[in-house]
Amino acid sequence: MQSKKLMEKPVDSLESEIDSFDLIVTFKEWIDGSYPEIDGINELELALKNLKSYYIKETEFYDVVTLDLAIEDSYEVIQQLNKSSPQFIKKAVPIDAIVPSVSDQIIDTALEVASRKITKKKSFTVECEIRSKYHESLSELIEKIPNKVCGKLNLEYVHQNPDWVILIEELGQNTAIAIQNPDKIHLNR
Known about the structure:
This protein is α+β, with helices and mostly antiparallel strands.
């Protein structure tokens, strides 16, 4: 959690703790007439049952919630989700930084976090989830981030079986950045 806090300080326009979180969880699309976000929250609460303290926050997007919890608890939640094979949770990812949804700030922060976490001679891929229609310019991130990371850090960009995943999750005015090993991400496509 400390590294995320360091990343937030240089960003002047970022609002305080209200907009920070440690884990982002997305739910699957409509399944057989059910509301996956309700069932997904129930599955998430089962994975959280052994934690002493957490707070689930809704976002402006029906299929996304964020969680406030200790970063080591984020990895425990990922392990629990991977063991339980939830039906309604699509993805859960520990977050490294939160920045305003401005292309240059996202790229600079992703590059800074990558330089701290990824060692030389490792491979990576980039995944971007752009949800807002008014942030169409962010779609260029899928091309710009690999170019910058390859150029400055001398890493290999791959589409399959990467050592690291750089995940960009746009949530309206703010964007979450996660740089994780694939085994530290819960993916249920």
